[in-house]
Structures are given as C-alpha cells and as structure tokens.
Specification:
Oligomer: single chain
Strand order of the largest sheet: 1-2
CATH architecture: Up-down Bundle
Helix content: 55-70%
Shape: elongated
Number of helices: 5
Order of helices and strands: HEHHEHH
Enzyme class: oxidoreductase
Family: Belongs to the Dps family.
CATH superfamily: Ferritin, core subunit, four-helix bundle
Protein name: DNA protection during starvation protein 2
EC number: 1.16.-.-
GO molecular function: ferric iron binding; oxidoreductase activity, acting on metal ions
Length: 165
C-alpha cells in the first residue's frame, strides 16, 4: 500500500456569494427548516373538525418547506456559501413563531400554521431584492417558494375565514 498523497483536483466555481447574499439565503434556509418542523408538529397533533383534510394539507406545506430548504442549501453550495441547518442555528435564527404544545384544535392549528407561513413569506419577500440584485439566477427559487407558500396560506386560511360582505 502506497503512502503517497493522491492529488485531487480543486474545482473553483465561477461565482462566490457575498456576505449579504449568503446571509439572505441563510435566513431563508432556517425559516424553511423551522416551517417543516412546526408543520409536522401541527400535522401530528391536530384534532377536531376537518381533521383529515388539514392533516393532509399540512403535509403539503411540509413538503414545500423540505424541498425548498434543500434547493436553497444546494444553491448556497453552488455559489460557494455554506448552509447551516443545525438545530441550534435554526432555533436561534428562525422567525417562525413557536408552535403550540400538545393537541391543537384544527381551527387554532390553521391560524398558527398560517402565521408560520406568513413569517417565512415575509423573509422571502425581504431578501428577494438582495438576491435578485446580486444573483438573478437565484431569484426564481425565492419567487417560486413565495408563490407556493402564499397559495398554501390562502388554502389553509380559507378554512377559518368568514366571507367579506
């Protein structure tokens, strides 16, 4: 067995994210991870009217958050930024409101998860121009997530909304 060091080529990517771009992506990442976690928490613990539909709808929200966090983290790597999705980082940085403990009535769960989605969308909208200004190739990710999550907030909030007359 040889003790020689194997030379591995070093790949230099053509674009490196600035601190502002990296921080914007990181804000989105931690909020998407938090949304995935609280979405599952609500999914497991909702009780009451329309349980089945809401149980399934929460999985849609979780899926968007999970897929979105992976896409954001991989885009970060593609632009020479290092994503940080460690639990302590997510807990310290996310702006998603704390999930209720224990069983939650479906109407309360809807109100909560809509507020959690709105927190993520606020972050997406807040960082959009920074990301678009520095890396227009990445802004589509932010825009797609905004559209998907706003649609979910609408779907869910319609469960508890009263008609406007």
């Amino acid at each position: 067995m040889s003790t020689e060091t194997v030379n591995t080529p070093h790949v230099t990517l053509s674009f490196t994210a600035s601190a502002a771009l990296r921080d914007s992506f990181q804000r989105v990442l931690v909020n998407l991870i938090a949304l995935e976690l609280v979405g599952k928490q609500a999914h497991w613990n909702i009780v009451g009217p329309n349980f089945r539909d809401l149980h399934l709808n929460l999985d849609e929200v979780v899926g968007i958050a999970r897929t979105g966090s992976d896409e954001v983290a991989e885009r970060m790597r593609a632009v020479n930024a290092t994503p940080d999705g460690r639990p302590a980082t997510v807990a310290a940085s996310a702006t998603v409101p704390v999930a209720p403990e224990g069983e939650v009535l479906t109407t309360d769960a809807v109100a909560y998860i809509v507020s959690a989605i709105e927190a993520v969308v606020a972050t997406l909208r807040d960082v959009h121009d920074i990301i678009d200004g520095e890396d227009p190739s990445s802004s589509g990710i932010i825009e797609d997530l905004t559209v998907q999550l706003e649609q979910q907030a609408w779907f869910l909030s319609s469960e508890i909304r009263k008609p406007v007359r």
